[in-house]
Amino acid sequence: VNTGAMADGKVLAKLSASTRNYDGFTKNTFTGNKLDSLESHGARLTVQYQPSDRFDLTVIGDYAAERFNGP
Fold first, then answer.
1. Mean pLDDT of 11-37
2. Distance of CA 28 to the CA centre of its chain
């Protein structure tokens, strides 16, 4: 998602997000649990402030979380 320019083009912002889920390919015959499952989520927000041609400030925030059930 790109929000574009705000405040007369002096503030720019964009947001990106991702998610991924796998149920797993292997089953533990002893416990019955699935193995190799994956659940991950992430997001990034970028905000740029450019009050003049000689100065700009960019702030980037990242978030990531992952849960893996491996052997």
1. 86
2. 31
